[in-house]
Design goal:
- The complex is a heterodimer of chains A (677) and B (150).
- Helix content of chain A is 28%, strand content 24%.
- Chain A contains 19 helices and 37 strands.
- Chain B is mainly alpha-helical.
- Chain B has one domain.
- In chain B, helix 1 runs antiparallel to helix 2, helix 2 crosses helix 3 (72-92) and helix 3 packs antiparallel against helix 4.
- The chains are: A alpha/beta (677), B mainly alpha (150).
- Chain A binds chain B through residues 259, 265-268, 295-301, 457-463, 471-472, 476-478, 480-486, 601-603, 605, 607, 639, 642-643, 646-647, 650, 659-662, 664-665, 668, and chain B through 2-5, 59, 62-69, 71-74, 76, 124-125, 128-133, 135-138, 144-150.
Chain lengths: 677, 150
């Protein structure tokens, strides 16, 4: 008999589903877990939270074939919500076992049914008698790293513009030349391709690069010294496309704060004040006061203020024009990054447009890497469904275009199965709520692996209503600049992991409108929440996707037939799925943090990429799990930019000046008057 | 705002000694109330001294909020509470350099209210514009980022 434990990683939101032969012992401290029990080899699993005992529990097969959960912990465990401590209980499969911050679904698998591809972790350890699941607690160094599998390509097209000019081009960058650790400029020039030079170089033209360049410009660097390589014309291009896909057009509000302004490094005036100003002078005084009241009393007495997407983009357009963004922008697809022999970096990029091959090199001394989310991935069972059926219409991801779902529902009615409880699920629910006004014959089944009780940290508990967990932004607010930020930065990699697990998890914003929709849906019966673990999704004879769910009690099976399944889980943040980063990490053996993301210093420097005076920094989601939690947010990107630029000032990078006091006020005045920095 | 304890102290001391002093000048020169007096600066000092103590309590209470946030409305409540406390102490017991017979409640309310509004608005505007790192360091404006180990 084998046991499968499944849970969602609270930090990366990835599904974990390792399978172990019984008996299985788990706890916080590997050395306390027995390796043999009653003459049998024991599988061991380590969970790092301090709320888990050193030796927390043992799961074994009794003589009469029952699977027994034996709690040995100080704090106890909860099985389907019932507490047990220092006691035994029979498991029948499907139960949700709670210990510390983990909510783990247990499935019993007869040894013969074991899915050979169940998980990377068990595969990596196949052949060893003792299966060991030990999450990395320190930096993953290249020499100790287990071979990293590159996940199979997703059926979700994330960056359509990149497909046209894929890496299949072959001879660029020249493989021979790019095998070296350091490349000489002479060798680059000998290729006959253009070699351009600049002092500063931002890779990726998204919001991460934009705020870095903005910060640099305000710290004194001239536009002639900076270049940005990107395929996007506007810094918010990809972001806006994702917003559109998840049903947020420009006039709707995004989950971001008033003072998270990618167009203004000071955060004042925030978007709430600007919107209040505009409303006031358009004669809408009450509305103006409403915005000010929101920022004054959020989140205690009012819903948190959030800006309209369109207002943020307009403000970024103004700032882009002010700092000369277009002048710094070079069109191109980045192929590879290498150190040069003269203490700089070379970036090979392709500016190929239809019918005209154009390969180039750009050499720079200070490089900033902000390539964003590498991919969108469907949940495994949904991906399998799509591969088997070729049906890309009835099973969709919330981040891919799926307007046809709502059009169909408005015309014909139907049932939607939603997976995931994050902000995208809220947006989808809002859109369905609107669709129900057109056609009330629409119902929603919302699938959750386990009931939610709300994370706890210190004296605080996160709010939960109807199993939706609420938090104004994707991390607790103090992780942007409060005591939680300081705590995380000061922590060791292991402590960081523990803290992030306590603060992480899927949450959505508490908006009155959304909560009302859920409440109404539950009362009127068109919205229901179902608990269990998905076993498979198949096409039935009516051509609809049927989801088979293992319930949480007594191994019951539930079958849900729906017209559409919408996957509202997150984006993929694993840098190894991005060919450029994969090449960089493998070529220079860059260490990864315990979450498998790029390891950066507290100044967001990729220390192992130092090349004499040359410095390289990274920002955004590719640094998740490091010194800062909310790396993929507007303000988080501004923080990354602030730290790396302050670091550049300290190493006296050319053109940079300290920004403080009167100098800072002067720069702010220039911003306010829309003058060049 | 998401302050740290050190950040609360630093911001309080900075704003009281700049904006607070400026806002007290009209009172010192006797433009309002019962004529000019140096007492107003002693009041500022006590607001700062007691405040540093209150900050410890606020910091503790903040731990009950999931976001460890301190929104404007709590800043206002804290300001009212501190004013009530200091006003009562000055009226009933008196403090060194401010004897009860020199205490005029209306003057105190005017002065305290004026200083508080000045400081409240400055904490949102002046600190951010003068010290770009202030908001990322929980209100600490002194000092730089530590050198990261590498």
């Amino acid at each position: 008999m084998h046991i499968q434990l499944s849970w969602e990683d609270p930090i990366t939101e990835e599904q974990q589903e390792p399978i172990f032969p019984l008996p299985l012992a788990f706890g916080r401290d590997l050395s306390q877990l027995p390796s043999r029990w009653q003459g049998q080899e024991v599988s061991r699993a380590v969970f790092t939270s301090r709320e888990v005992s050193r030796y927390h529990a043992l799961i074994y097969c009794s003589e009469n074939g029952q699977v027994i959960y034996e709690d040995r912990s100080a704090n106890g465990s909860r099985i389907n919500g019932k507490k047990i401590r220092q006691a035994r209980q029979v498991l029948t499969g499907g139960e949700v076992v709670q210990f510390g911050p983990y909510n783990v679904t247990v499935s019993l698998v007869a040894s013969a049914d074991e899915d050979p591809d169940a998980t990377l972790l068990t595969r990596a350890h196949r052949g060893t008698p003792t299966l060991l699941l030990e999450p990395p607690t320190d930096l993953i160094r290249p020499d100790t790293r287990t071979p990293i599998d590159i996940p199979p390509p997703s059926t979700v097209v994330f960056a359509p513009e990149q497909i046209v000019d894929s890496r299949a081009a072959g001879e660029f960058p020249p493989p021979q030349l790019f095998q070296a650790e350091h490349i000489s400029l002479a060798a680059l020039r000998a290729t006959g391709l253009p070699v351009e030079e600049s002092e500063y170089l931002a890779l990726g033209g998204g919001i991460g690069s934009f705020v870095w360049v903005d910060t640099l410009r305000i710290h004194g660097v001239k536009p002639e010294q900076i270049r940005v390589i990107s395929i996007a014309q506007k810094p918010y291009e990809r972001y806006e496309r994702l917003l559109n896909n998840c049903q947020i057009p420009r006039w709707k509000r995004i989950r971001s704060g008033s003072d998270s302004c990618p167009d203004n490094i000071w955060g004042w005036p925030g978007y709430a004040l600007r919107e209040a100003w505009r409303s006031f002078f358009s004669g809408r005084v009450l509305e103006a006061l409403g915005f000010l009241w929101q920022v004054f009393s959020e989140p205690l007495l009012a819903d948190t203020y959030t800006p309209r997407a369109g207002d943020v983009f307009t403000a970024m357009d103004r700032e882009a024009a002010r700092i000369g963004w277009e002048q710094m922008l070079c069109y191109g697809n980045i192929r590879a990054i290498r150190k040069t022999e003269d203490g700089r970096y070379v970036v090979a990029y392709s500016a190929t447009r239809a019918g005209h091959t154009d390969h180039r090199f750009r050499v720079a001394k200070y490089v900033h890497l902000a390539t964003g989310y590498p991919a969108i991935k469907l949940l495994k069972d949904l991906q399998e469904f799509r591969e088997q059926t070729g049906d890309l219409k009835s099973v969709v991801h919330g981040y891919e275009p799926h307007s046809h779902v709502y059009e169909h529902l408005e015309k014909h009615g139907g049932t939607v199965l939603i997976r995931g409880f994050g902000i995208v699920a809220s947006q989808v629910m809002e859109r369905i709520y609107e669709a129900r006004k057109v056609n009330p014959r629409i119902s929603v089944v919302h699938l959750s692996r386990s009931p939610k009780s709300g994370n706890r940290f210190g004296r605080a508990k996160r709010a939960v209503e109807n199993h939706w967990e609420f938090q104004p932004y994707n991390w607790p607010k103090a992780t942007w600049g409060g005591d939680l930020r300081a705590m995380l930065e000061a922590a060791t990699p292991l402590e960081r992991r523990e803290l992030l697990e306590l603060w992480g998890g899927t949450t959505t914003a508490s908006r009155r409108k959304w909560r009302r929709a859920v409440q109404e849906g539950l009362q009127q019966g068109w919205y229901s929440i179902l608990f269990g673990k998905v076993e498979k999704v198949e096409l039935d004879n009516k051509g609809k996707p049927v989801t088979y769910i293992q319930g949480t009690h007594n191994n019951t099976q539930v079958k849900v037939e729906a017209d559409f399944v919408i996957d509202c889980t997150g984006l993929v943040s694993d840098p190894m799925t991005n060919p450029l980063l994969n090449d960089l990490i493998s070529h220079y053996h860059l260490p990864l943090n315990p979450h498998g993301r790029l390891h950066v210093s507290n100044d967001f420097e990729l220390v192992e990429m130092r090349n004499r005076e040359g410095r390289m920094y990274a920002a955004g989601i590719i640094t998740l799990g490091g010194p800062y939690a909310p790396v993929d947010t507007f303000l988080g990107l501004q923080y990354c930019a602030h730290r790396s630029v302050e670091h550049l000032v300290r190493v006296r990078a050319p053109g940079t000046k300290t920004l403080e006091g009167i100098g800072s006020l002067w720069q702010w005045c220039k911003w306010a008057l829309n003058l060049k920095p | 705002m998401t302050p740290t304890l050190i950040g609360r102290w630093q911001t309080r001391i900075f704003l009281l000694s700049t904006v607070g002093v400026l806002a007290s000048l009209p009172f010192y020169f006797g433009l309002t109330g019962h004529g000019g007096s140096f007492t107003y600066f002693w009041v500022l000092l006590y607001v700062g001294l007691f405040g540093c103590g209150w900050d410890v309590i606020y910091n503790y209470l903040m731990g009950y909020m999931w976001d460890h946030d301190w929104p404007g409305v709590l800043q206002l409540l804290a300001g009212i509470w501190e004013g009530l406390f200091l006003g009562t102490v000055l009226m009933v017991i008196g403090l060194p350099y401010i004897p009860t017979q020199d205490f005029y409640l209306v003057d105190f309310i005017l002065h305290y209210g004026f200083v508080w509004v000045g400081i409240y608005l400055s904490s949102w505007v002046v600190m951010r514009i003068l010290f770009p790192r202030w908001r990322f360091r929980g209100g600490e404006w002194l000092g730089k980022w530590p050198h990261s180990p590498s």
